[in-house]
Structure formats: structure tokens, C-alpha cells
């Protein structure tokens, strides 16, 4: 069974909290604490703070013809799409490695 590597966690940062990574990848993932340490080594921004900062900074490019509520919804959907793509790419990698190594 493939065990997630630091670069795998880095690809999920900041889109998934350590508990979400552990829940998604189960025994393939290290402990939440280890994942947190990898995240802390990568950035001083936590995943939760990332979303807040992204929202704050996004207002600078917000379409003024769109309501604030619609903008927040749009941004949230875009970030969730990125998260989904990164999870999918990692699952593809895991499945390929496990197919080769048995």
C-alpha cells in the first residue's frame, strides 16, 4: 500500500485540513500531527487562514456587478474545484503506484 509522501501533502495544502487528509486517505496517510508538521514547514498560513486571506484579497478583483454573497459563493466553488482536482490527481497517482507494486 502506498504511503503518502511530503510532496503529496504539499499538493493538498492549503485546500485540505490534516483531519480531512486522514479521513480521505486513511491508512495511506500519516497522523494528523505529522501532516500538520508538513504544513507548518511549508507555510506559516494555516488552511483556515488561507481561505480568509484568499477571500479578503479576492475583493480587489471582484466584479462590482456581482453581489458579495455571489462572490463568496463563486470563490468557495473555485477553491473546492481546486481541492477536488488535487485529491483526484493524488488518487490517480496512488492507484498507479499500487497497480505497479501490487
Describe, in plain words, how this protein is organized in 3D:
- The chain is an all-alpha fold.
- The chain has one domain (6-101).
- The chain is 71% helix and 0% strand.
- The protein has 5 helices and no strands.
- Helix 2 packs across helix 3.
- The radius of gyration is 16 Å and the shape is elongated.
Please tag this protein with its features.
mainly alpha; 102 residues
Task: Please give a quick description of this structure.
This protein has helices at residues 6-12, 18-25, 32-42, 47-58, 68-101. The protein is mainly alpha-helical.
Count of domains? 1
For the largest beta-sheet, the strand count, sense and barrel status come to: none
Share of helical residues: over 70%
The chain-level structural class is mainly alpha
SSE string: HHHHH
**Relative strand content:** under 5%
How many helices in DSSP terms? 5
- Our Rg estimate from Cα atoms comes to 16 Å
Number of strands: 0
What do the pLDDT scores average to? 91
Shape: elongated
Uncertain ranges: none
- Distance from first to last alpha carbon: 8 Å
Record the SSE blueprint.
Layout lengths: L5 H7 L5 H8 L6 H11 L4 H12 L9 H34 L1
Amino acid at each position: 500500500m502506498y504511503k503518502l509522501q511530503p510532496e503529496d501533502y504539499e499538493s493538498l495544502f492549503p485546500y485540505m485540513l490534516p483531519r480531512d487528509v486522514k479521513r480521505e486517505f486513511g491508512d495511506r496517510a500519516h497522523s494528523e500531527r505529522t501532516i500538520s508538521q508538513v504544513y507548518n514547514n511549508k507555510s506559516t498560513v494555516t488552511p483556515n487562514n488561507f481561505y480568509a486571506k484568499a477571500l479578503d484579497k479576492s475583493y480587489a478583483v471582484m466584479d462590482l456587478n456581482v453581489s458579495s454573497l455571489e462572490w463568496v459563493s463563486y470563490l468557495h466553488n473555485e477553491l473546492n474545484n481546486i481541492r477536488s482536482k488535487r485529491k483526484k490527481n493524488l488518487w490517480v497517482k496512488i492507484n498507479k503506484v499500487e497497480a505497479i507494486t501490487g
